[in-house]
Amino acid sequence: MRIKSRKILQLPATCHSITFLLLGSIAYASQIYAITPITTTNITTSTHQTTTDTNHSAFLPVFIAEFALSQGNINQTLNTYQYLVENYNLPNINERALNIALEFDDIDTALNISRLWVENYPDDVPAMFYLAHLSLRAHQYALAAKTLDRILQIDPNADLEGILEGIYPESTEARQALLQALNQINKKENPSVLVMIAGLEAQSGQFESALKKVNLALRKRPNVPSFVILKANLYFAANQNDDAFKWLDYSSRYQKTPDVGLYEVQHLIRQNKTEDALKKLKRMLKKWPDNEQLLFLAGITSIDLKQFSQAEKYLTQLQRSNAYQDQANYYLAVNAERKKDDALAIELYKAVDGNFYTVSRKNLVSIYLQQQRPADAIRLLTQERVSHPHQASFLYQLQAQILQMMGENQRAIILLNEAIQQMPEDPELIYAQVLLYDPFTDRDALDNALNKLLEIEPNSPTFLNAYAYTLARQNRKLDVARKYAEQALSYAPQQASILDTLGYIAFLQNDFDLAVKALAEAYALSPNLSIGVRYAKALYMHGDIEYFAQICETLHNQYPDSEEVAQLLHLLVPNPHLQPS
Length: 581
Description:
Blueprint: H1 18-34, H2 41-70, H3 74-87, H4 91-103, H5 107-120, H6 125-137, H7 141-154, H8 161-164, H9 172-183, H10 191-203, H11 207-220, H12 225-237, H13 241-252, H14 259-270, H15 274-287, H16 292-304, H17 308-315, H18 325-338, H19 342-350, H20 357-370, H21 374-387, H22 392-405, H23 409-422, H24 427-434, H25 443-456, H26 461-474, H27 478-491, H28 496-508, H29 512-525, H30 529-542, H31 545-558, H32 563-569
Helix pairs in contact: 1-2, 1-4, 2-3, 3-4, 3-5, 4-5, 5-6, 6-7, 7-9, 9-10, 10-11, 11-12, 12-13, 13-14, 14-15, 15-16, 16-17, 16-18, 17-18, 18-19, 19-20, 20-21, 21-22, 22-23, 23-24, 24-25, 25-26, 26-27, 26-28, 27-28, 28-29, 28-30, 29-30, 30-31, 31-32
């Protein structure tokens, strides 16, 4: 008998009504009763009565469990189904219980269900598959090895890929424990087990040993995509890139699916071998002309290579695709922009929805602004708020940005007021307004907006930093500002903007030790003009004149026309090379 692994994480997608489950329980119990030896009439009557009572008694717990599930009470559902498994242990109920436990990622409950299932039905192979997979996920490697051994006693060449999929522990200790358990399996020459061991060895850097095991597995199953890809990965890990690409190119010719070829294409693109990737995609499309993933990759790769007609050829085939329609329209619009066909790009961007909606509208607005048509951009966004009400917040913010670029800050603030009245708890709208307020003339409104932001999201590093920076610019409540900046940094360490704020506040407090330290980190992360100028000032006040001079020289070379840098240079001892012109 040949055993093939079923999808461990996807139990059958049947809709188990309560009646179906209970009828299944009764039917299964009737089958057990039918093959039970009968010796006397009295025993028959007693057995029949017991079976009937057992199944009737299962009705109420199943109803309770399913009702609890419909009400969102997951704990009660799982507890009730676990009771059913422990007391009745019928395969259809077990499977339903396991399905729910896996759906809500309760691995401990799922493992317990599968263990009880196997104990009561020791020859039920699907139950053993679940038990092996779940024991691996629960890091109970001895139980996993024991269960795998039982499966392999039935079929030494069983396909265990579904069981082993994604089971690679992160810690060295766990990897060693799993490796030791797998090495105790009697039939460890099974291809799936060999590959699992190879993967664990590869994670520990034992590439040569791992490669030998993968080669053994490939002798028995030469065309399994995951085996082929693992061998390529081992070549890549050992810096044998040429061998990896040769192996992938050779193996992909004999595959029944495009998986191996796609993997090769991804690596070619990562190594900037875009032309080779497109050649590979063209060859694959001859074999799988309707494969949407291949068509999509061929289309966007063609755009990168400025083969615009070729890109249109591939992407237009996806404009009616359920999976790729929006991506196809978006990249066809990008393609049209590259060809300088703005009219076509506008039409295509307007057709985009889904995950590419926001970026398409930004690009659309960008075209209008390049064409000096801001009024058309605003008109479009106003219409879009009607046709796409779920995108209203984003559309309001984009329109406010256009008004700001036109120098009409007050109109932008009024527009955002209108939006906030409709969506008073939307932090992005409030934050967009914060960025428009003047820290001095709009101080009260700014304080209200910042307090509202922290009320909605008190632990947001962005909003904490915004409040801290505003107070620093106003040079008030510096202790509060510093507390907010430090809190923001605890949530988002190594963020240049927050370090800059903290350094700025420390500078205003005459804490030049902290100012230099924070601004040095900020400048290392983001060496721009504003942070550089603050860092230089902090160095000067700290007395680090040598470092101050070095930063001034760097800034002068990068920003020779900056007035701020010119002012810094006046603080130096006269140096003809660094004097402002």
